[in-house]
Amino acid sequence: MEFQNLLIENKERIQYIIINRESKLNALNKDTLAELHLAFSEAFRNPAVGGIIITGAGSKAFVAGADISEFASLDVEGGTALAREGHDNVFNLIANGSKPVIAAINGFALGGGLELAMACHIRIASETAKMGLPEVTLGLLPGYGGTQRLAQLIGKGKAMEMILTADMITAVEAQQFGLVTHVACPEDLLPKAEELLQKILTRAPLALASAIRAVNAGYIDGVNGYETEIVEFGKCFGTNDFKEGVDAFLGKRKAEFKGE
Ligand code: COA
Prior knowledge:
α1 (30-45) links the parallel β2 and β3 (51-56). By secondary structure, the chain is of the alpha/beta class. The protein starts with 5 loop residues before the first strand and ends in a 10-residue tail after the last helix. A six-stranded mixed β-sheet has the order 1-2-3-5-7-10, with helices on both faces. It has a four-stranded mixed β-sheet with strand order 4-6-8-9. α3 (112-119) packs across α4 (146-154) and α4 packs across α5 (156-165). It is globular and about 60 Å long. It has helices at 30-45, 76-95, 112-119, 146-154, 156-165, 171-177, 189-201, 205-217, 225-236, 240-250, and strands at 6-11, 14-19, 51-56, 61-63, 101-105, 108-110, 122-126, 130-132, 169-170, 182-184. The chain folds into two domains: 6-200, 2-enoyl-CoA Hydratase, Chain A, domain 1 (Alpha-Beta Complex), CATH 3.90.226; 205-250. The mean pLDDT is 97. It contains ten helices and ten strands. Bound molecules: coenzyme A (COA).
């Protein structure tokens, strides 16, 4: 599939999705969001793709936010629709995806950019990265899940401070708060992301999908995460991957999972 605002690169079972609007610091305009929806839907469906690394083109920005130039004409209805469509089509799609998604934050991750990274399952950052939710400087609040996911990831107190001050934090601070799990120098960022994802891809694919569903379930209002864990745990016993994993362990050999 050909995209105008994304680059797609495949490296064995890893798919790179690179946001490619460098002159606008990779800001998420409507077209880019639509392309992200298509790219992630396709990657989750494609059996050749085991996991995804998302990053931004260039060295300056991961994503500097939603495209502010598209905000000017919006009214209450338009703003509500923009947020709802974004949640459904991109941010929740990624968060609930059946394959692991790592955000490699290579520069500014602001507003919708940080929200995009927070929708991913794992975040790592370049030591040059800056992260923040500056929406209140525009008379807005984070509208792509930022008020929820930032509080879940770093706790309500620090999240509230970041959202209300609109301050940016460094990669090292982000690691201290638990917002990113690793900080690397710029040239080591993608190798580190690949190393992490390669390790994950040696694990059982259906178990990975179950684990993502179970962890996420604990953050959905009205859903009992423990119950989801029980159901997903039980389902794993019906998979060939489970038989292979146990057989390999007992046979003292490396498991070869097929995702079946
Ligand atoms: N939406 C639309 N365009 C954006 C953008 C965004 N979120 N962020 C950056 N750009 C554009 C700039 O308008 C500029 O375009 P131009 O060259 O056509 O004028 C280009 O990207 C480069 O940005 P610039 O501001 O000149 O770079 P800088 O190094 O001076 O500052 C930032 C970098 C990230 C601090 C600054 O761009 C910024 O504050 N961006 C907005 C961040 C934000 O509020 N995001 C939340 C949106 S909800």
